[in-house]
Amino acid sequence: MNYELSKLGISALTAMQQDMLATARKGASVVLLSPTGSGKTLAYLLPLLQKLDAKSDALQALIIVPSRELAMQTADVARRLCSELRVCACYGGRPAMEEHQQMRSLKPHLVAATPGRLLDHLQKDNLPTQDVSTLVIDEFDKSLELGFREQMQSILSLLPRLSQRILLSATDAEEIPAFVGTKDYVRLDFLDHERDDRISLRIVKSPEKDKLQTLFRLLCKLGTQKSLVFVGYRESVERVAGFLEKQGIMADGFHGGMEQRDRERALYRFMNGSSNVLVSTDLASRGLDIEAVDNIIHYHLPLNEEVCTHRNGRTARWDMQGSAYFILGPEEQLNPSLFPSALSPYPSSREEGRKGSCQLIEESLSPRRENGERLEDSRETTPPLPLWVTLYIGKGKKDKLSRGDIVGFLTKQGGLEASQIGRIDVLPHWSYVAVERAAARDLLARIKGLKIKGQKTIYALAGR
Hints:
Elements: H1 15-25, E1 30-33, H2 40-51, E2 61-64, H3 68-81, E3 87-90, H4 96-106, E4 110-113, H5 115-123, E5 134-138, H6 140-143, H7 146-157, E6 164-169, E7 186-189, E8 199-205, H8 212-222, E9 227-230, H9 234-246, E10 251-254, H10 260-271, E11 277-280, E12 295-298, H11 305-312, E13 322-328, E14 360-362, E15 369-370, E16 373-374, E17 388-393, H12 403-412, E18 421-426, E19 431-436, H13 437-447, E20 459-461
Parallel strand pairs: 1-6, 1-7, 2-4, 2-5, 3-4, 5-6, 8-13, 8-14, 9-11, 9-12, 10-11, 12-13
Antiparallel strand pairs: 15-16, 17-19, 17-20, 18-19
């Protein structure tokens, strides 16, 4: 099986990926522990895809992931790695019958699915399991929590011919339930604190219990940097994102109660650089591969060390740098147990300390007023708008539309230079394209009413 690593912008494997490849190739069951952003998806997909028989029409492997976005992302990476294999993603938020019809037509070799939707298909005999020999459980510490255990146990009971199980996470679990069937497995532990050196941990104190103004001032200070804001509740996502939008900051919300299309649009706008801020519940703390997130902002404090680790794992991915900000209200304190023992305790020094000490630094935001007068050096100015905007095209993969078709259309018909086109995401029924903000309005006027690949469709800007 030939891999196309170049399509993922990868020229060489890391030591962790090489060890995983060598171990999983032997058919051993594996538990891989490695920090977020270290390339675990690629680490398990390489030996898995090598094992699959592209000439067969049988389903041979299943991947269980905790979210829709991770299911889609995993399937997309697998397709890009090996175009010979047939891969599909299954998840809630769309009709199960539509997925069943797709699978009957496609006859996938590999399925990436969320636990509930996978169990539904297995119980309805929508997926043939007689040839499924490998099961991957990504983010296994989450998938094996009490809320998921019944589903996971039922899934395992419907897969009688498993010979290899691969479990992955950025945090260890206290124990692996017996029903998973991994008594004999190889444990690859790449968890260490080297990555902590690349994350600057900062405290921001809010003078008010309602932290909205402090968050706004922090984002103004951060300017056009890409920031992921974590809150504890779905309602808080709507409130915080709505407030920031009214203040002129390009912010989107992201939580499990949103319609799938709205979730996808918010995520793609953040990923392609046409919004600066994504406000999310902990749904965005796992598995999402978002490039170059500069800052993690804990608007609501994480409940425990595991949540903190996964949230902070969205920044400083691979070998990049990042910052994590903890906004504390007047009566809040940061619990030292949130951090590994390698970190210095709270309260921290205001000094940076030696490089790699992972101290908590108190970030200074100038007070808004002094004696009733606004201070000149603390003016709140909304950050400039992002360079990019997201163009919505109402056609996608099912309309035989490709990235190449979109680039050709926008350059030839739309008059754009290649440098004015950013990230392109072609989904089943529609597509999102990042285009230079300065050129967007003229572009819409030029392409209005034109056909793309011989098909009439809708073109619109997703957001401001």
